Every structure is written in structure tokens, then in C-alpha cells.
Amino acid sequence: MNVILILADSMRADALGCYGNRYVQTPCIDSLAARGTRFDTCYSTSPLCVPARSQILSGKYCHETGNMENPAWRYHTRRPVEVDGVYLDPTIPTLPSVLTRNDFYTAHLGKNHFYPRHNRLGFHQMEQCDFYGRHVYEIDDYYLFLKKNGCAHLFRDAFGRVDAPGGAEGVVRDEFGLIDRLCPYVSVLPAELQHTPWVGERARSFIRGRPRATPFFLVVSFYAPHDPFCVSAPHDRLIDADEIPLPPVPDELEPSAMHFGEQSLRRRLPDDTWRKNIAHYLANVSLIDREVAGIVEVLKEQGCYEETLIVITSDHGDTLGEHGIWGKNLLYEDCVRIPLIFHHGGGRVSCGVKAETATLLDLYPTILTFTGTPAPETRLAGRAWDLRNDRSESGSRVVFGELANSAHSQYFVRNGKWKLIRLEGVGLRELYDLETDPNELHNLAAESAEKVSELDSLLSAWIESEKPSWRRRLVSNEIDWQRELRLSHL
To answer: In the chain, how many domains are there?
Structure first.
């Protein structure tokens, strides 16, 4: 039994055709969803890159591991480092380390966002495609690929950032900041050298050259469709921007929109720029679908399609201008609701749409259960779903989420159709009826005090129950962290 986890960055659920998007082109993913299990609602309970990825790897809430923000180093040492990323205590059994110990060959290709970059966290093999961090170009596999093809100077341009290392001809921006996510960008890098096809080709190469004596667990981690909204020609015309409808925006900004974190930016764009951003975003999703189709073809070519579980999901979504904000790091549905699809070529996954609510925390126990791999002796926060039948799980599931940023901590609780967002430190609440108001345009907190109190009590009880597992920040300079990282998860 092989497992391929296809992980996109910032891909919201409604960016796929099988979730109702009429403008994107995702025939392969839609087909896999139609012949597998698709969760209608799946949450990234911490919609930011590092916290979300730490949950996939550890099966634990980010407050259990300390990965509450992107710069996870703040939780482990006073000495600043030049890259952020997932850091997990070496005693935490990661999903790849558990599978490795049970005779899987494990590999991670694409964006890892680990700290340090070559900390394998239990994987046998890693190939990287990360923009983040300074002075890491010489160790990035995608950069080395561009260098081999005479395009090293366009490394940052490939991500929509033209301040290439050492300077580059044709620089049109002096620096990169949050404002650049509002500038739809056409890269001068040839389309065939972009990072999405590179990740897809590395995945296909892995499948062809994999060890034949053992099953494999492969993470295919695409950087796209993460902002800035960058494509190469001719893909800037793949989606007709003029046809894109703009999402509704509330008349007044709600508390979350006034107290967001560093990863978000409030700005109203001209309508044509707004549409072009969304068109580039959907073009990147369509390009991912093409690479997934290529991966499926190689699985069939190599005779292992019928023995492979394919999982498709994302670390979090993106506002794409909704609520008057660009970015993530918020607890609105456009940030927290992501796709989750399971497909098995041999038909061992039931066909249909599950109405129950799933979370990223469920990936770890579900993959172990499906492959018959013994679970580690540690608490896993998620639920193991039975993918072999289409019966509904009994009982309604209450889902909790959390975020920490430089301004305020945020929490949410979802129970049935109701969702409460709470901003600590400012005493503000937002209440939404997701059946009648899926875009969260009408905050009902002021007129539904009883429902606010009910959900607030649920949230407070959960926080209190989690306090024993809350990881304290480690600030000692006496610990040899580099040695700890070298030993991590081996």
C-alpha cells in the first residue's frame, strides 16, 4: 500500500471544480474526487503555513508543539535565525518517522518549510523548492535546477519576486513586501521551468526510480497557488479574468479584519486588478491539476496505481480580497476551509461525499489506519476516518481552531451550522450561521447573545482541557540546538 499526499499551498476548497468552481480547470482532481471520498468540509485548524504543516507531521495541535506562528524559532531559542519553519521536538514521532520504522520508503518533494531546511523530520529523501530564507539558494534543489538551465538569476522571479540574489537584469521592484501580493505578476521564466512542473516531474521521477521492495509514502508539496499571483506566459491567459465574479464584501469591517496578523494586508483593489489576481491564482491551481494528471499516468505506467492511496489537500486557504483583506492568518472560511480528497486506484476507498467535518489533524491517524500501520504511543488529536465505507459517522463533531500572531491570539469553534470567532485581549466575538451566510458577511454576535454564550463556553472548556499539553517556550541558550536538530527524528 503506497500513499501519495499532494499538498498545495494556500488552496482554498472552492478553488477546485469538484467544490463548485466554474472557472478553474481541474479535470484530473475532479475525476479522482468523483471516484473516491471527498469531504465537503475540511478545516485547517491553524491557517498559516508552519502551524498547519506541523499538525500534518505531528498529528498534534500547534499549541502542543510550539509551532504557533511561522517563525517557530521564537519558541526554541533566543538566537535569531534567518529562516522560519516547522521545528518539532525530536521526541515527537512524526508521520513519516512512524511509516519509516514500519518499512515504508518516505520522501518529501517541493516546499517543506522545515527548520532547518535539511531537517528531514523522519523522511528518507528530500528535494526542496522553497523561496523562504536568506543565503539558502545554494542548497535549494529547485535553484540548482534553474542554475543548471542557465536561469539561476531568475530564482526569485519564478515566485513573483524579482529581487534575485546578486541582482538581475530587468528588475522592476526594489524590494518585496506584503504589498506585492496585490500585484499580479507575469514571470519572464519559461513556463516549463516554473516550480510547479518541476515538483511534478520530480514526483514522477521518484515513482519511476523508487525502491521496489517496499511501499512508499511520498509528499508532493507544491508552492502554488501561494501569493504573489505569479505565472509565466502563456498561462497568464489560461483563465479569463474578465469572467471572474468578485466576491461580496461586508459593508463594515468586523473585529477579525481590524486585528489580523503579519501575514495579511487590508487593501481594496481596482476591480480589474482584483480579477486578474484571482485569475492567476486559479491558473496556478489548473497547472497543479496538470501535474497531478502526469503523476497518475506514471503510477499506471509503473503498475502501482491500484496499490496507491492518493490524498489531495492544502495547508490553508487565502482570502483573495474577501472581507477587504488579502492573505491568510485569519479564521474566516476562505482561510480555514480546504479541500480533502482520498482516492485509491484499486477501489479500496468508497465513492461519495462525506458531510462530516474533517481537519488536517485527521490525516495522520487516517493514513496509519488505512495502511494498517501501528499508531505511536502518543496522543493524536485527530480522528481516523474509515475510508472503506460510505456510512456517516454518528454524532455531530465540534471543531476548534487557533492562531497566534503579533497582535492577538484568535480561536474559533464550529458546531453544526454555527461558528464563533474569538479574539483574545480585545474581548471581541463574531458569530456566523454558515448555512444562511457561508461568506460570513453578517456577524450575529450582537443579536444572538445566548448562542454566543453557548459556543464561548465550549471554546473555553476546550482551552482549559488543553492547558496540560500546552508547550512552554524554551529560551535556554545552553542547549546545543544544532546537535538536537541533527539527531531529530532519525
So the answer is: 1
